Amino acid sequence: MSLIYIFILFIVSIIIFLVMREFWCWYWKINERIDLLRSIDSKLSELPKSPNSILNSTIKKSISVDEGEVFKKYDLSDHDWHEK
Predict the structure, then answer these.
(1) Contact predicate 54/48, CB 8 Å
(2) Which among 50, 70, 49, 73 has a CA at the least distance from the CA of 61?
(3) Which end of the chain has less neighbouring CB within 10 Å, N or C?
């Protein structure tokens, strides 16, 4: 008979634990934090892997926009990049 009481106490303890766990996850906004972290992770995975690729694309864009002015301002033949 005491084994049944121990078993019932064990089951009730597990149920109380699960209910309280859900309450504390809601109270501390754990579920929202997990969703936010997953959103951040998915956005970061869309970015290029190498920082050099970001830098190279930025340089290419800036040069292609002002290419004519770059060649007018700088002498590219001696690679000193001094203004004329």
Answers:
(1) yes
(2) 70
(3) N
Number of residues assigned to the chain: 84
Does pLDDT of 81 surpass 90? no
CB 13 within 8 A of CB 7: no
* Token pair listed for 42: 């998915």
* pLDDT tens sequence across 37-72: 999 999 988 876 666 666 666 666 665 555 555 555
Q: What is the dihedral of CA 76, 77, 81, 84, to 10 degrees?
A: -90
Name the residue type at position 84. K
